[in-house]
Amino acid sequence: MAPLESGLIKSATSFPPIRACIFDMDGLLINSEDIITDCTNRLLEKYGRPALTRSIRVQLMGVPDSTNGDQFARELADQCQSHFPSCEPLPGAKKLLSDLSHTRSTPSGDRIKLALASSTKSHTYALKTSRPEIKQLLDFFQPDRRILGDGARVRQNRGKPAPDIYLVALQSLNSATDADEKVIMPNECLVFEDSVAGVEAGRRAGMRVVWVPHQDVAAEYETTQKHVLAGRTKTSALGDDWQLGEIDDGWAESIPSLESFDYKKYGIDVL
After folding, report:
1. Which domain of life is it from (predicted)?
2. Residue of 47, 166, 254, 260 with fewest CB within 10 Å of its CB?
3. Residue ranges making up the domain that contains 135
């Protein structure tokens, strides 16, 4: 099992082939973030308050427990939980996961390994994945490679943008490798994220990142996209800034949807 640390110098201009892909879930693979927004706005309307602005919505996305704490939040949680069973896959999610489950890394020819790293808790995960089509989608990840926010292997109060959940996901992959396989290194991992906090978590983990932002997120960070890709939006105060990237260092890119992913760019051959 690989150590729980990234320990990489991020100034590299060339990269090894990708051997593993690690995915966020909410807002990337399924439309749960839209459900949360809709439930929030219905509740705000009930209490005569204005709807969420784009800026506030963007700040909440991808941050664990960002709506907990008071009566409003508890009522919101109840509404969300009643609607989570209606979650649907987002465009390109099923095809991408299906393709990656039948891919090999060049030039080694090894199969690409997949893991899930989601801040969602076990109870809400069960609700969000209760529909057959969502269960089928998440079946591309083996059960021991689905890392959730309340998992025993994830330290408390170390959610995204801390790198822990992505490093634990990498550990889950390395613990399942064959004896003759080389350990997968962080810079051989490709993280897929929709949130700014998630991008920072992936960068802090020493991994390459594909950012697939919601249109509201993309619009909010249009002028600072390079800072997002470097993990340098200064939205948190974790310290350990050495873990972050540099502007235009090539470790991350943004694409409009999962349907736009370029396999060849990352040395991935679809069988």
Report:
1. Eukaryota
2. 47
3. 20-31+88-270
Answer yes or no: are the C-beta atoms of 22 and 201 closer than 8 Å: no
What Cα–Cα distance (Å) separates residue 37 from each residue in 76, 110, 111, 140, 188? Answer: 10, 40, 37, 27, 34
Do 76 and 124 belong together in one domain? no
Which residues are within 8 A (CB) of 195 and not within 5 positions of it... i.e. 6 or more apart? Answer: 24, 27, 61, 62, 63, 160, 213, 217
Q: Identify any residues that bridge with 116 across adjacent strands, giving them in sequence order.
A: 23, 146
pLDDT above 70: percentage of residues in the chain: 89
Q: List pLDDT tens digits, range 6-62.
A: 444 444 458 999 999 999 999 999 999 999 989 988 888 888 888 877 666 666 665
Q: What is the pLDDT of residue 71?
A: 82
228 and 203 Cβ atoms separated by less than 8 Å = no
- Judge if 47 and 160 occupy the same domain: no
Give the 3-state secondary structure of residue 268. Answer: strand
CB 217 within 8 A of CB 56: no
Backbone angles phi, psi at 68, to 5 degrees: -95, 160
CB 240 within 8 A of CB 269: no
Same domain, 38 and 152: no
Burial class (CB in 10 A: 0-12, 13-18, 19+), 173: buried
- Strands of the 189-193 sheet, one edge to the other: 146-148, 113-118, 20-23, 189-193, 208-211, 252-254
Best CA proximity match to 10, nearest among 246, 258, 256:
246
